[in-house]
Amino acid sequence: MEALAIVTSLALIQIVFFSFQVGASRQKHGISAPKTVGEDAFEREFRVHQNTVEQFVVFMPALWLFGYFVNPNWAAGIGVVFIVSRFMYRSAYTGDPAKRGMPFTIGLLCMAVLVLGTIIGVTMSLFGLPG
């Protein structure tokens, strides 16, 4: 479970880092809060952060449920892949938004494995099947 705590902490740090990137972009482009539109570069940073927060709502409980019902080390490994995919997503989206598809898909697959794996793990446990 320690590995899950580390991955959770890294994911939280990533979200904070992305929020600082939004703030820096606001300052650079003169876009004061609460505005969320302006220069394309700002809007891209803003959307990266927002999209990451939106996915965090699914990712975090899925990570811990999978860790509890299936395997904490596998969950942590999948979590690391998810975090890396979000950095890849940021790089693609801030450079050329059309290239964000592959890293987005990797993150989506990570979440799907965590959620579906949890459902399978819990179902097996309920019926006393070996896991």
Mean pLDDT across residues:
96
Give, in order, the helices and strands.
HHHH
The CATH topology comes to Four Helix Bundle (Hemerythrin (Met), subunit A)
Radius of gyration: 17 Å
CATH class category name? Mainly Alpha
Describe the oligomeric state of these chains in a short phrase.
single chain
- Largest beta-sheet characterization: none
Q: What percentage of the residues does DSSP assign to strands (E)?
A: under 5%
Number of domains: 1
Class by helix and strand content?
mainly alpha
| CA-CA gap between termini | 18 Å
The backbone outline, from C-alpha atoms, is: elongated
Helix content: over 70%
State the fourth-level CATH superfamily. Answer: Membrane associated eicosanoid/glutathione metabolism-like domain
What's the helix count?
4
CATH architecture: Up-down Bundle
| Strand tally | 0
- Low confidence ranges: none
Topology diagram in text:
Layout: H1 2-29, H2 40-69, H3 72-95, H4 101-126
Helix pairs in contact: 1-2, 1-3, 2-3, 2-4, 3-4
